[in-house]
Amino acid sequence: MAAVRERGQLILVGGLSLAVVLVAIALVMNAAIYTESLASRDDAGELGKPASIESDLSAAVESMMLNDFSESEISDGVGEFSSSSAYFAAQDGAITSASVQSTNAGTLVTDSSGSFVSADGDASWTVVDSKPVRSFEMTVNEDSLGSAFEMEVTSPGGDPWTIDFSASGDTLTMTFDDTETTVTCSTTPDSEEDAKISFSSGRLGGSQCVPMKRLFSGESVYKIRFVGGDAAAGTYSLVVDEDVTTMEDYDDDGDDTETDYGSDSGDPTVAEELYSVELLLEYDSPEIQYETTVVVAPGENDD
Question: pTM to 2 decimals?
Answer without folding.
Answer: 0.77
